[in-house]
Amino acid sequence: MASAAGILLGFAMDRVLGDPRRGHPVAGFGTAAMRLETVTYRDSRAAGLVHEVVLVGAAAGLGIGLRRMNAVRGIRRHHLGPARAGSANHGPTIRTLGEILLTAAATWTVLGGTTLAKTGRAMADRLEAGDVDAARALLPSLCGRDPEALDADGLARAALESIAENTSDATVAPLFWGAIAGVPGLLAYRAINTLDAMVGYRNERYERFGWAAARTDDVANLGPARVSGIITAALAPVVGGRPADAWRAWRRDARKHPSPNAGVAEASMAGALGVTLGGKTEYRHGVEMRPTLGDGPVPRIHDLRRAVRLSEAVQVAAALAAAATAAFLRRR
């Protein structure tokens, strides 16, 4: 039960503390990745693959190393404790407690759901106050759209789509891999997702170099995105929606999206909320015409608040499911 307890404790820490304001390990990883890029960058897929393997391998290796250190500490305490202390052996207890704390720390490090929800609510507050300039200044913390090209409704839609996608990427996916692979899975997934956000673009610099990062992220999110879609559909009544509408939007519209995973997250959210997402999407590098997802009106500010509530409900359900899965797998 140590992994399950660690996952739940780490999730609770994210709910209470959110992301650390300074010294965030993910930010440190990003800095290291940028420095390595100055060495590994070539305009080729092979160079991008090397970049991906080195960094993701290092993150997974760190997780494996930390887990082994905890196991070795428990083994030493198991053999040496009674001789030194002349009392009962507490080696297994120390090892279990160490695994709980290690899993909790890794889970807290990789989750971003609480900060995502806070940012979504802050965006809704600014839009409700009519402060479009402040809302535009906040948008880059959610997504890469061009805020200057968006009005209030466009900002609400951009924020809602980002919340839908990142509910899967920032919470469901790391919990999924933490349940399956423990601390190494948590750290490796966050490395994969961070590298995709850094170099997984189809522009002149990263078209080939970022190919490995983008494809690895797609593969890593195939399962989690669908778990997220299932939970989103099931919890649609939390925001006055119908599971059947979310399921229908997913089955009908997700395949239209250029991303095999973001389409699932956004379509199921659109169906649950009863709104239409997609359409003209303006980035700094240009304009994309995205397929429409869901039925109903374009999202407004109150729909953004509903999306935040649904995101938080999905996060709680995903944490409970991950803990149950981890307990089942470790028992077997």
Automatic annotation (TrEMBL):
Transmembrane segments: none
Main location: membrane
Pathway it works in: Cofactor biosynthesis; adenosylcobalamin biosynthesis
GO CC, one annotated term: plasma membrane
Bilayer topology annotation: Multi-pass membrane protein
Keywords associated with the record: Cell membrane, Cobalamin biosynthesis, Membrane, Transmembrane, Transmembrane helix
BP term (GO), one: cobalamin biosynthetic process
Record's subcellular location: Cell membrane
Record-level Gene Ontology MF annotations: ABC-type vitamin B12 transporter activity; threonine-phosphate decarboxylase activity
Family recorded in the similarity comment: Belongs to the CobD/CbiB family.
Role this protein plays: Converts cobyric acid to cobinamide by the addition of aminopropanol on the F carboxylic group.
Classification via PANTHER family: COBALAMIN BIOSYNTHESIS PROTEIN CBIB (PTHR34308:SF1)
Protein name stated in the entry: Cobalamin biosynthesis protein CobD
Name of the gene: cobD
